[in-house]
Request: fold
Amino acid sequence: MKKLDEYRYLPAHMAERLRGIEIGVRKPMDGSKQGLHRSPAFGSSVEFAEYREYRPGDPIARIDWPVYARSDRYMIRRFHEDVSMRCYVLLDISGSMGYQGSGTLRKIEFASYLAAAMLYVMIQQSDTSALMTFDTEIRRYYEPTSTFTRLKPMLLELETLTLGQEGDIEASLHAAAELIPGKALVVIISDFLEPPDKIIRGINHLHHDGKEVTLFHVMDPTEVNMPLNGLLDVVSMEDQGKLTVDFDGIRESYLNVLRQHLDHLRSGCQRIQADYIFADTGMDVCDAILQRRKIG
Reply:
């Protein structure tokens, strides 16, 4: 059996950079054991658990001042009233995710690195994580786990993905909302190449069920900047339809539509305090994860 650091989408150097990163949430979470996040329940044990170093954004009230007086170090007291949270990583495997333009990776490859990173970070901070893949519906679902042993089948799944054709993000998010119980963190990794109103309806369903939602919007630099010139034949990666396109003639209109699309998604997320992170495939995966860390 492979060691953890031998998996394609969680290489040793990436796991090392991710070690110690903590992902926070705004909302109280459901949980079953000690962790980093506020419980919605009262009457939990307040037994002292451990110290850790203070980080910007931590509650000042948790600094142990006697420890500071002795060591000149700001240390946070953690208690057993904090609970672990469940994180569900939803990965888009529709046909458009197979695109690679000027980026060094296909979108699905970059997205798989992101998925592996989120799954790993949640487990190493004593939370649980789960993987779902989707196109027009949920295709695979791995139950939440808090152990690296049970993480391995999810990492193997990322290595053997078969892309679908068409996608339906809204339908998949509605289905995910029905599968995911209680309050949890839901991370959606996709190129979101569908009408924003439909996508936002699916996100809203998760939000109204008490989930906290994060979007990682993955695009290739060619899709973002449209550097192509002249007449070129374009083949859809979802329905295999062909079209001859004059890229010089459509560039300005395309970029305007793209800006509107991104703005629509961002504003829809802002209304419900969902976190929106744009990541092109030339970006460092760990830097993308760190953007989410800064939000929590």
